[in-house]
Design goal:
The chain is mainly β and 118 residues long. 0% of the residues lie in helices and 51% in strands. Strands 2, 4, 5, 6, 9, 10 and 11 form a seven-stranded mixed beta sheet that branches.
Length: 118
């Protein structure tokens, strides 16, 4: 699958951004879809994840501020980010978790940069 992220950019602290991840095939063919981020000098970390059944989980640092959602008809996963902080600055990556049942493999997008100014 090809995953294409969009929506990154520069925003002031306290602002909002919405990221999109368009998949080249149906997202129901994957066990879960997720957003991860990586800041310079840091390890990649989970931001948010949504399973095929709609169960969501979030990284501790974004709980209550970010929301992940999916649109099966559009093969797209979204990440709504509110109350952004400078520490949210990172490259954000979309990920698809492959399914044994659907014979799909894990995949990553190329990433989109989010920069939050103080």
């Amino acid at each position: 699958v090809q995953l294409v992220e969009s929506g990154g950019g520069l925003v002031q602290a306290g602002g909002s951004l919405s990221l999109s991840c368009a998949a080249s095939e149906s997202i129901v063919r994957f066990d879960a879809m997720g957003w991860y981020r990586q800041a310079p000098g840091k390890q990649r970390e989970l931001v948010a994840r949504i399973t095929r059944g709609g169960i969501t989980n979030y990284g501790d640092s974004v709980k209550g501020r970010f929301t992940i959602s999916g649109d099966v008809a559009k093969n797209t996963v979204y990440l709504q980010m509110n109350s952004l902080k400078p520490e949210d600055t990172a490259a954000y990556y979309c990920a698809a978790e492959g399914s044994i049942i659907w014979h799909t493999a894990d995949s990553w997008g190329q990433g989109t940069q989010v920069t939050v100014s103080s």
